[in-house]
Design a protein that fits this description.
The protein is of the alpha/beta class. It is 31% helix and 22% strand. It has two domains: 160 residues, Periplasmic binding protein-like II (D-Maltodextrin-Binding Protein, domain 2, 3-Layer(aba) Sandwich); 98 residues, D-Maltodextrin-Binding Protein, domain 2 (3-Layer(aba) Sandwich), CATH 3.40.190.10. It is built from nine helices and twelve strands. The protein is elongated and about 65 Å long.
């Protein structure tokens, strides 16, 4: 599997994906008891997945496991800000592959807005497989003595937020509005992993990031939960872009990602499972 992360170092997330082998086989068989069905296309070729940085660890592990159980398939995973990934996915569609080299492009985003820019390239009914909730990432030991999200308005704090044009920025704005908080001159960055890194490196005192982000670096940052974060959640939506010569393989990938077995793994990592 080829992985091209656009963010810093990765920390492994424990995975319990062995049961997915049986699920994948069931998806491939396409059989109903007592009914004769046409042969189901083989999962093969290449599937390139563009995804938000907040999925780096869990999606990298999932893709590797999926490849393991589908040895004729190569999954390439690229991570970054939603807007950048959307543009890259659109450009990638031009390379649709051939019968001998089938290819497909999958785009995963943290909200509906990026998909609306794709027009007919995106399925109007994306696969929603998980949600995520914002928390405040702070320095270990809480040296600034923060007690809640309201402290983000303090003039002595260096606060990092996602860019307002990104889904994580839209979600941040919604929860801050719900809390009645307006940070002074926040530092804007393209994604939550960049925001988290600012706190880890001592360049900021606090950042709004996802709960799953702080879990993977809980030895280098602290976490403040706040009730207003329930006002808006990141919603992970995935589509296979139109024009692919390998849509079957990409759809099996998405079906498995949205499976009950994978939902248990996502929940264990701190994601909220779509229901």
């Amino acid at each position: 599997m080829a992985v091209r992360p656009r963010v810093g170092g990765a920390v492994a997330v424990p995975m319990v994906l062995a049961v997915l082998a049986l699920l994948v086989q069931a998806l491939l068989s396409g059989c109903t008891a007592g009914a004769r069905q046409a042969p189901v296309p083989e999962v093969k070729g290449t599937v390139t997945v563009y995804a938000p940085a907040s999925l780096t660890e869990i999606l990298t592990a999932f893709a590797a496991d999926f490849e393991l159980h589908n040895p004729n398939l190569t999954v390439k995973v690229i991570f970054g800000a939603d807007s950048e990934m959307t543009q890259s996915a659109m450009a990638d569609v031009a390379s649709t592959g051939t019968a001998a080299d089938p290819r497909a492009t999958v785009l995963i985003v943290e909200g509906r807005a990026p998909l609306d820019t794709l027009g007919s390239l995106a399925d109007p009914s994306p696969v929603t497989f998980a949600r995520n909730q914002l928390v405040v990432a702070i320095a270990p030991g809480n040296p600034k003595r923060l007690v809640g999200v309201g402290d983000l308005a303090r003039p002595d704090l260096r606060v990092v937020l996602c860019a307002e044009t990104e889904p994580c920025g839209t979600t941040s704005a919604a929860v801050l509005t719900a809390a009645g908080v307006k940070p002074l001159a926040p530092i804007r960055v393209p994604d939550v992993r960049t925001a988290l890194a600012q706190v880890e490196q001592g360049k900021a005192d606090a950042a709004l990031v996802y709960r799953t982000d702080t879990r993977i670096v809980d030895d280098t940052v602290g976490t403040l939960e706040f009730a207003e974060s329930r006002a808006a959640l990141a919603e992970y939506q995935a589509v296979v872009l139109a024009g692919s010569s390998n849509a079957h393989s990409a759809q099996v990938f998405l079906n498995t990602l949205a499976s009950t077995a994978m939902a248990e793994t996502l929940a264990a990592a701190g994601f909220q499972v779509s229901g």
